[in-house]
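User: Before I run my own analysis I want an independent prediction to cross-check against. Here's the chain; please return only the structure tokens and, at the end, one sentence I can use as a sanity check.
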Amino acid sequence: MINPTWLNTFCTLVEVNHFTQTAERLFMTQSGVSQHIKKLEQQVNCALLERHGKQFTLTVHGQNLYQQGSLLLKEWQFLEQQLKDDSPYSGLVKIQSPGSCGLQFYSQLLALQAEHTELNIDYRFAPNTSVEQAVANHSADIGFLTQAPTLSEVTSHKIGQEALLLVTPAHIKNPTWEVLCELGFIGHPDAKHHAQLLLSENYSEFEHVDQIKRTGFSNQISLILEPVSLGLGFTVLPAYAVGAFNKPALIKTHHLANPISENIYVCHHRNRPMAKRMHTVIEAIKAGE
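Assistant: Structure tokens:
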């Protein structure tokens, strides 16, 4: 079995990329760091670093060990924390979701944290693909997604739905295909997914969003509708994101003939046992749906 102390020194060195700074972070001497790396190389019977004076690069074996070893260390740290304290109302919970889910869920979780002050909510906004990857590599404990995950490491179940809405500048009364093409599309991280779901069911001309010229892009959920409000294009967004926009008079929401909702999934790592506080968070979200 690989020595976890030596493995931790190795992974820290890779992340810091400096022997002296690694020693400082781990409260060791530089020679102690070197000894750990040497012993680890002897244990796995292969070179992990190629040294170039004071610099180094990873060998292929070193790269493989870092990728797998860093995940193991996170698992061990999680298990250790869980064994120490598995209270349903205390501890850190790292959560990620797309923006519209975040606008809705974060306020609910802040209310939960206000009630249970030992609970520590770390909430980050990211597109679906990034959220799924974060759960797979243990950067997030829980992810909320608006499309089913595809990675084998991630398991999920549906917890709700949210309507998708076509949003144009306020002066647009009839959003025909020709009008939309003339306006142009305001992109965002999940725009292709949203447009495919809604527009394909309501416009026979639609095949993919790239048919329409793109006239802007924003990755900030609170800013996506700003260019729309200025007449620079249209977009498709979940209802909660549209409802949160602070200039409603400058945009128009269109309810199309075939309404479409996207599913909301909660996901976590398939091989990681869920701490009680994670269940607390999920139940709070379900209760607010």
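Sanity check: DSSP finds eleven helices and eleven strands in the chain.
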